[in-house]
Amino acid sequence: MNVSKALADANRVRILLALRGGELCGCQLTELFGLAPSTMSKHLSLLYQARLVNARKKGRWVYYSLPGREAPEPARAALKWVARSLAGEAQMRADARRLKQLLRIDPTELCKRQCQR
Questions:
Q1: DSSP secondary-structure letter at 68?
Q2: Which are the contacts of 111, defined by CB distance < 8 A and separation ≥ 6?
Q3: Average pLDDT of the chain to the nearest whole number
Q4: DSSP labels, 18-35
Q5: Measured between alpha carbons, how far is 32 from 28 in angstroms, rounded to an integer?
Q6: What angle do CA 53, 108, 12 make, to 5 degrees?
Q7: How many beta carbons lie within 10 A of that of residue 48, not counting itself?
Q8: Cα separation, 104 vs 108, whole angstroms
Q9: How far apart are the first and last CA of the chain?
């Protein structure tokens, strides 16, 4: 997957900015953006293919994080550009406030909520 194609969707850019604070469970990201789990899964898959996120599975959950030095240079450059260019946008600030609230909730509880919908 091409990095520029991965960045062509606003939700995927928002996901990258949300991950700047550290690793998040797929359930946390799904709750943060209010997307259907299948839609979130597709977005995360595209970001993973472009090597813009790392994924690790632990039990039933998949955790996502930004790559470190192991990422190819185009991916690292794209992540830096996103952070520099868009972090101050109103939507990104609103996402950061919402994420702060969501981080107070146990990820297991978030997953249960999503399964009940």
A1: -
A2: 25, 27, 60, 61
A3: 89
A4: HGGGS-EEHHHHHHHHT-
A5: 6
A6: 25
A7: 17
A8: 12
A9: 32
